[in-house]
Design goal:
Layout lengths: L2 E6 L18 E2 L3 E2 H11 L4 E5 L5 H7 L14 E4 L13 H7 L1 H4 L7 E6 L2 E2 L4 H11 L3 E6 L8 E8 L5 E9 L5 E10 H12 L6 H11 L5 E5 L5 E2 L3 H10 L3 H9 L15 E2 L4 E3 L2 E2 L4 E2 L2 E3 L2 E2 L4 E2 L4 E3 L2 E2 L4 E2 L4 E3 L1 E3 L4 E2 L4 E3 L6 E3 L6
Parallel strand pairs: 1-4, 1-6, 4-5, 8-12, 14-17, 15-18, 16-19, 17-20, 18-21, 19-22, 20-23, 21-24, 22-25, 23-26, 24-27, 25-28
Antiparallel strand pairs: 2-3, 6-11, 7-13, 8-11, 9-10, 9-11
Length: about 375
């Protein structure tokens, strides 16, 4: 079966965390970036024709992915391609995913006409078997499959796309940008359809000033009875990183072995860029409890319930609790950090105290000294 993948790098804003990077390149889990999960999911299904659509701040993403060899992909036409539809566009205004696909239509023109397309978004990560999703889509005979997750809707979180099913699994309601009650399913922003259907729909919609995948294609066409939709309910862990609070909570959830195993090993390994570092050094006076620690760290202080990326330094007498500490951060002697996200290359002076809350962690920008 011929299949291609499209990954939206996502230009959503997560405070200082995405000031200089796109969502896809946001660090996660000590060694990874969000895009790693989508690349690994597609590659594990044997999909080698993958396009990454991005608009701004994509240099770090390109540096991370490189030639794509870590995921068994090749950077070339018909393989892995970076699609920057607005780089040479007359307008920089972004209206929606359908418009972005239209601007990168040449990507869809490559390969067989009967090819299927899997479209996904970088903000929501999971370890999902795309072959199972694709088989379910083909078996359904419907125009589009939407991958969903139960348990995300809770009456407080606004969902980009929410679906309610009846007892027979048929759709009762679809809503966009909706604070849905608990009996709704949340879209994981993974869609499957035939390439021919996507190309023709995009061309038709753009001609009528319709730009949005969720509002115009899924909900709009369903309300007109002009589309048939298959709903695939994912049973594993799905982490929605659509706010700083969610990113923080999802990062810390990895210290739970059950969550960590599901996200990194449920169906297949998650691959990332290989960077050889020396092992982490644990000093005589350090204490590390319930934490994820990457390689190359120098630990002389106390770390608890936290995620430490590569080459983090925690000096003697420092206390780090419930924190996300990214690459090359240095925490000075006697400093106290609790409920904090330190971006890359940050420096916390000796004796400093940074204390946020579980719902509102303090975020320190990349390269800053506090």
């Amino acid at each position: 079966m011929n299949v291609m993948g499209i990954i939206f790098a996502n230009d959503a804003t997560l405070s200082a965390l995405t000031d200089r990077r796109t969502m896809a390149s946001l660090p996660f889990g000590g060694r990874y970036r969000l895009v790693d999960f989508h690349l690994s999911n597609l590659a594990a299904a044997g999909i080698r024709h993958v396009g990454i659509i991005t608009r701004h701040n994509y240099q770090s993403l390109m540096n991370h992915i490189g030639s794509g060899e870590e995921w068994g992909l090749t950077l070339e036409e018909g393989g892995l391609e970076f699609l920057t539809p607005y780089a040479m566009s007359a307008t920089d205004n972004y209206h929606g995913k359908l418009e972005a696909i239209h601007e990168a239509m040449s990507f869809l023109d490559f390969g067989p006409e009967d090819e299927y397309v899997i479209v996904c978004d970088s903000a929501i990560l999971s370890n999902i078997d795309m072959e199972t999703v694709l088989d379910a889509h083909v078996a359904s005979g419907k125009d589009v499959t939407v991958v969903t997750k139960a348990g995300i809707a809770d009456g407080t979180k606004q969902l980009d796309l929410a679906l309610k099913l009846d007892d027979n699994g048929e759709i009762l309601d679809i809503a966009v940008d909706y604070i849905a009650p608990a009996d709704y399913l949340a879209s994981m922003d993974i869609f499957v359809m035939k390439k021919k259907y996507l190309r023709e729909t995009v061309q038709e919609f753009i001609a009528r000033n319709l730009f949005h995948m969720d509002r115009d294609l899924i909900m709009g066409q369903w309300q007109k009875n002009a589309i048939t939709i298959n709903v695939f309910q994912f049973q594993g862990v799905a982490l929605f990183n659509e706010s700083v609070d969610e990113f923080y909570q999802n990062s810390l959830s990895l210290v739970d072995p059950a969550v960590r195993h599901d996200v990194f090993g449920r169906n297949h390994p998650i691959f990332t860029k290989v960077r050889d570092r020396v092992p982490t050094y644990y000093g005589d006076k350090c204490s590390v409890k319930n934490a994820i620690v990457a390689d190359g760290c120098m630990l002389e202080g106390n770390v608890e319930n936290s995620v430490l990326f590569r080459q983090v330094t925690v000096n003697e007498g420092a206390h780090v609790e419930s924190c996300i500490i990214m690459n090359d951060a240095v925490i000075g002697e006697g400093a106290e950090l609790k409920y904090v996200i330190l971006d890359k290359d940050t420096n916390v002076r000796p004796g400093s105290k940074l204390i946020g809350t579980p719902k509102h962690p303090i975020v320190i920008k990349r390269g800053e000294t506090v």
